[in-house]
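#structure-requests
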Amino acid sequence: MALSLHVGTSSAARKLAILNINPNRLVMIVRLILIATVLGTISSARTEGVTSIRGYGVMSCGEYAAGYKADPQDFDDRIILQWMLGMMSGLNTAALDRHEPSRDMTSISLATQRQMFRHMCDARPLRPVFSVVMEIYRSLEVVPAIPEKQQ
């Protein structure tokens, strides 16, 4: 599906110029919205009957690759990396709440975590993103549990 936006000398072009909006940037934003809508629909359909994982984690590595190809920086940084860090932080929070060992999220650099993610996804395009994130999480150094305070 090709998306084109002709702005030429129309009133829309003048309005974009007045608002200082680059037409190419506008086209990219529209494409990203369409990708997010499609992936969101796919993700929602996959989670019917399953409430434990929602969002970008249920997309396949192949779907990640398609989004990454459309806009590598935005898709990787704002969507996957932030989702991955949020999931790992949530796992750590739950572990700390239960007084169980957590993981040191700084024990592997973000750059290396990204490389690990891409390598694992490239190897298995049908694999769900959340399972890749879980594998990366399990590779982080274990932080001993904080004992519950004696009452």
